Known about the structure:
This is DUF4268 domain-containing protein. By secondary structure, this protein is of the alpha+beta class.
Amino acid sequence: MELQLTEAERRVGGFALDLIGTDLATNTVVIVENQLEQTDHSHLGQLLTYAGGTDPSTIVWCAPTFREEHRAALDWLNEHTDEETRFFGVEISAVRIDESRPAPLFRVVAKPNDWTKQLHTERSAVTLSPKSLAYQEFWGELLGRIRSEHPTWTRSTAGSSQSWITLPYGTSTIWYGMAFTVTGPRVELYFGGPDASVNLAEFERFVEHRLLLDNEFAGSIKYDPLPGKKACRIHVDRLQGDVLDADSRIEFLDWFISTMARFRPLTQQIRATLESGA
């Protein structure tokens, strides 16, 4: 997984989760709980508490050694939870060669059933439709330009075969999106956390500072609370365009880059204002 750290010591109720981040390929939440000694019941309970408070897809428990009972508990969780939820147990030690600096050595001791086989199957056996292949090629080319022209936007390198890709915003529940909708290309800020009421509250706080975006994008920007759904979005649309239109490929690439180059700094400025309490 290509991971981007979102926060260290994330507050979950009265506890502090060690690390929370995002799997850039799937835009799903990853949490990590570190333990400095052999695993114990207390940290297993904390791990489940943090999972309940952050709705992650991937849960990782790191420790120098795992008790067999705790390794078996992770195996049981992998067998009895849905396929979208994955538990890993990782033993960490230090190694040194001659006079080199110590380096970390990780050993996976618990993982989802057939994890390696599943990854191999997913990567080798999927047959893409012409449109899915076009998305994959387009997003791969777009990410290549982003890495060259705007390397701070994302570290993702793999083009998606879906109609959209995501870029980090700075929190695990809000992210940028670039997509081909039924009407054409779109750049958006997506409020997509697990709690609909929190998403709406964050969206409404953001919209209170919309003047910067309104001045830049005038009537082309939309603020959509998506009534009846869990998520909310703020988006700018280009009203024509299909990924299969090869003749307009460069035009679409330029539009996504130029629009995000205007959209991102303004939304980050609003984010800074909100985090400062202004």
